[in-house]
Protein: Site-specific recombinase XerD
Amino acid sequence: MDNSFENVSLLWLEHNRFYWKESTYTKYIFITKNISKIFCDCMIEEINSKRIQQTVNNILLCNLMSVTTVKTYVSVINNVLAFAYDNDYDCVDHIKIILPKQQKSELKILTQKEQKALTTFLTKNIDLTKLGVLFALYTGVRCGELCALKWGDIDLYNGFVSINKTMQRVQCTDETGKTKIIITPPKTPNSNRIIPLPKFLISILKSFNPNNENSYLLTGSDEKFIEPRQAQNIFNRCLSDCKISKINFHALRHSFATRCIELGMDYKTLSEILGHASVSTTMNLYVHSSQEQKRKQMNKLNSLVKI
Structure:
């Protein structure tokens, strides 16, 4: 029996592949291959907390990976070990390591002034690609969800959009090293959702008068699509035209959530619109107090002082 980590991880992958989405499967193939390279044909029984801790320390010391990436790799190692242990391999069932605390990075969002400038630019120069940016900004959909969206998913009469799929580029599972585009169900079951559309957006959507429900929203074609990487490039050009600093496409989702909170939307409603499993996820990840909001709240203290 081949007790190498590489072989056991292949068995683990094969055991679970039909329970995972294709994107998850290909991600784990990539990670297990990298782990096998790091440990150079290490036997499964040689994997222990001390060895992994020393390796992790060296990786972090040399800035070869982020703490977040290391956490993901360690999680995969633990999953492989648990699988091996349950299948009577002579190994530990898990490892424990210590990682440095991560500083929580502040996610960038559009200020109200930037959002107004971007909205004006998009509406004055509207086409299908700019419509996509506007749509993301005022619905909070993820980039992959937007790219997979078809006109048939939008009910202009009742004024809502059905989010039921996502698009992403993944690594092929063969040895070619190539990638491919796949369209799958959304990120989680909660991501399957129906979002009411604001009236101004419905009016703009109606102006395009689509005649093919199978055509993609961003292209108007049922064969040609725009993938997330291209959507980011389109967004970058819009930002440049508006003299706004470059930010990730996902910042549109953050900005949407923040504006909704500023306008008084209740957290439960926002959580469901975003497709989160719980309100706490929405609060922790996507609601950010902007500088202008902080200033507005701090200025309330002026009422306490008379000069």
